[in-house]
Amino acid sequence: MYKAMRNYLYSIKKNTVILLFCLCITIPLFSYSQSKIDSLKILFRKAKSDTERVNIFNSIANQYSAIDSFPHAFQNVNEALQLARVTGSDKKLAESSLNAAVVYWRAGMDDSALHYIKQAVAYFEKQPPSLVLVKVYKVQGGIYKDKVEYKEASEVLTKGLNVAQQIKDSAGIYSLNYNLGSVCEVNGDFELALNYYRAAMNMALAQKLYRNAINACDLVGSIYAKQGISAEAVKAYFNALDINARYLNQDEINGVIDVNLGNVYNDKGDSANAMKYYRESLDIFTRLHKKEYMAQLLGNMGNVYMNSGDYKRAEGYELKSMEEVKALGDKVSTAVCYTNVAEFYNHVKDYSKSAEYYNAALQLQEEIGDKEGLQYTYSGLGQLYENTGDYAKAEEYGVKAYNIAREIPLEREIRDDAKILSGLFDKMHQPDKAFTYYKLYIDARDSLENKEEAKKLIREELNHEYEQKRQMEALEDEKRQAIADEKQRHERAIRNVFLAAFIVVLFLSGLLWRNLSKIRRSKQIITRQKAEVENQKAIVEQKNKDITDSINYARRIQHAILPTIEQWSELFTDSFIYYRPKDIVSGDFYWYIESGNEIIFAAADCTGHGVPGAFMSMLGVSSLNKIVGEKGIKAPNEVLNELRDEIIHALNREGKKEEVKDGMDMTLCRYNKANGIFEYAAANNPLWIVSKASGAWALKDCDADKMPVGKYFGEEGKFALRKVDVNKGDRIYIFTDGYADQFGGARGKKFKYQHMQEVVLAFQDKSMKEQCDELGKIMTEWKGDLEQVDDILVIGIEI
Predict the structure, then answer these.
(1) CB-CB neighbours of 157 under 10 Å
(2) Are residues 204 and 239 in contact, defined by beta-carbon separation less than 8 angstroms?
(3) What is the C-alpha separation between 20 and 450, in angstroms, rounded?
(4) 593-608 pLDDT, tens per residue?
(5) Which of 407, 430, 478, 539 is most buried, judging by how many CB atoms fall within 10 Å of its CB?
(6) Separation between Cα atoms, residue 782 and residue 740, nearest integer Å
């Protein structure tokens, strides 16, 4: 939840900057506008025509609306409209309608504003393209956006952008790209928003509007941050810092961007870098006396302390941030602070205070219509009520949070809330819903793991389409220019009376020839395109077949590196391996090596399944062969420690700052046949020993270290070496989590480890091979028609 709240603060930073600039200009603007109004009233008394009076009425209305004196503004707008009708000038009426739309829009009366802007559009669309038409489209698009009619807003703003490009209006091109990016962002179309923001940035740089360019960079970074694409977010923010350093060198801008960089690192769990950037920005804002920014930073720093377990400092920073923000009167930021404090008290189990602050945040967010803020608050309330045992309310708020996350969308919150709801419904004994949300969690998790690469491909495609559109527009401009040149030549030609007939015939003949040529060329192009499409279809079908063949071949390779059942049986006469991959290839693997009287063997579960998991399994097998076979390291705990270093090094050879999140869970054992000593080390997956005492079979659950073999975002330690006493006839079981996590049965619930232990104990009167068959039958019956959710591996050995 704290990670999610940090994403939300990116939008808060933008709102804070806008608020700051408004505070700086409000008082002088009021004085200036009042003085300007007095001057305009003097001019009105001296005006000699109704046209002049219409212009003055419109100017006075603008000045009143600038200082929020809307009753006076409406009065002057209506005077302008009435007088414009008296003049009989359609142009003056359209200009007055445009001005009325702007005034009513500023007053928040969107329906009235839309009524007047449509009148202005009806006139100016019939006129040649102009700066006024660009403004009309910008105003209409803004009104539609405020009315949450994003499709209409996008269509109108696109018209405005086309006109601005046609008349080469640089300022209009910048602002319309910026506004289109904003519409796409609030509508959840992040890829298109990025394209528009980048276009706005490039236009701002070309016009030397460096503040605008920095703002566009900041918005690009915030979109990437919302989606969890940290590397691209950091790249955008550093680009903003570079522009500031080269052209403006303003400390306030550096401070704001440092806050955003700190937020990105805090999202990644990198507390050291997060605090580095927060402290740098705090130094800047303290020096500049920017209390608004300092209040935001206190909350951010409190969250870092919270994540690191320093609750005393975290509480102090969060409460101080909340009081500072409340004093500023910023409702959006106040709601964020309430939610942060509520989450803190929920974490330390002070549930009454947590509920108090969550409800305070909820009231503010509903008042201001803050949908993203409501999503985080609903999610927090759901977890709070789950902690207190009120499952009905936990379900109510959890489902609300999940639905809003899907609507916006917020991809990490979709994943996290689906997982929370799956666990909640499991507690409520509603297995169908638990399974549904567990599948949604798996889908969202896998999607996020591959999101960054997929987004790069999408961006390349969109950039290609955008470039093609620009080329088409250039060709249209050339075509329009050619037609205009032809018209001029024709007009010059008809002035010559003696050559008129000849020129007309010649022109018509040439036009006919050109059209016939175009038809022939079009047919040729269509024929080539059809052939190209058919060729591309054949290529795609062949590539699909090649990919499937490659995966099947990869299965043969994977099977080749795994020990055969015959090889395993030579080591352990009475044993079994129950191995069921989810896909063609598997992320689970088993391994052994024999050295003298010692047998070292393992069962492992790699990150993911399918092709990604298979790559990890091959890395695991090759690394184990190297560590034990070549380096001679045989102690199970030392093997796991060395394997962890090998995996981290192999997956981060270029030394990039991005954290490697791949690895594996594993149980690795060493058995000495000569002296009967049995040792093991375990990463997350335990080991079971079944032995017979006093005529009855008993199962012992041996502990595992709660960390994976790979990069671990927690307190990273060494794996422990554990020794257990085994006797002849004892049975050892090692496994991955696929068997216990499979959904099924009459109520669609997980199989679970306790049930698995009961099954293992129930079959101890059977041989190990018979146990393997029984495990397969039970799993087939349990799963039924449900999909297998993970790779399955269970190994049984009798000493």
Answers:
(1) 28
(2) no
(3) 39
(4) 998 889 999 999 998 7
(5) 430
(6) 11
